[in-house]
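Format notes (please read before filing issues)

Several people have asked whether sequences and structure tokens are stored in separate files. They are not. Every record keeps both together, in the order shown below: the sequence lines, then the token lines. Line labels are part of the format and must not be stripped during preprocessing.
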Amino acid sequence: MNEQEFAELSAGYALDALSPEDRRAFQAALAEHPEWVRLVDADVETAGALAESVPDAAPPLTLRSTLLSRVATMPQLPEMDAAAAAVAEPVASAPPLPPVPPVPPLPGDASAGDAPAGDALPGDASMNDAPFVEPAPTTTTIQAISRRNWTRGLLTLAASLVILVVLGFGAVTINQYVNRPPEVAALAEIEAAPDAQAATVELTDGGTATAHWAESVGKVVLVSNGLPEISEDESFELWFVREDGTPVAAGVFEPAEGPSTVILDGEMQAGDTIAVTVEPQGGSPNGEPSGEPIVAIPTA
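Then the structure lines:
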């Protein structure tokens, strides 16, 4: 298993979605290449960030009362065997017999015309036009059909409620995924790239800062936690510091509680150092760092 195949399985491992066979192959590859654990850590961090961004969804407060009131209004039938009610079918009436064609009188047979008025011949309309009366269903049949329809209706209602809840949660999850912040989407894109790289440094106050980049993606993302507090009239500014020491401004960001994830503006060159300085609100006025960087992450 190469690093790209391992990275593809890493996301599934972070979500606990691997099959037993893929999990064994993943764990074997991780034991053989312990340096790939950075891919796992990044995917676990990303999955946690996505999970925390999805708000808790509770079912409607009226769901239970609505269902109980629906049940209460259903007609209550006498007790009967549930198995018999489930398989009971309505009594099918026999289809009417087809009309009997009239028998034509034989030539010279005068008896056909001399038949008594009260005696109907086989072809008489008085016999063929008589309406067929369907037999009335029995009480047992009516109860079985009603109970079966009530049971099916209740199960259909419950299934519909479950589908609505699942679809609602799915819509929220998809909406959260599609509307991810650009920096989160960029981090996921970098981590999925075959040439993804990362470097981490510890801050003086005990925090950490990690730079993520991939040449094939052309983006750089900085994930920091524990940056020092700054005043309201100051901002953090990002820099690409070239190998010859030339700083290139890469955007500003405001302090945030907890971890901060930001995407750098511009393109990184080989050997650059990712740096963060504290500048006046809005960034350095002259395009040069105002002081020593509080974060410096070499990428070479």
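For reference, the curators noted about this record: The first helix runs from residue 3 to 14. The two ends are 26 Å apart (CA to CA).
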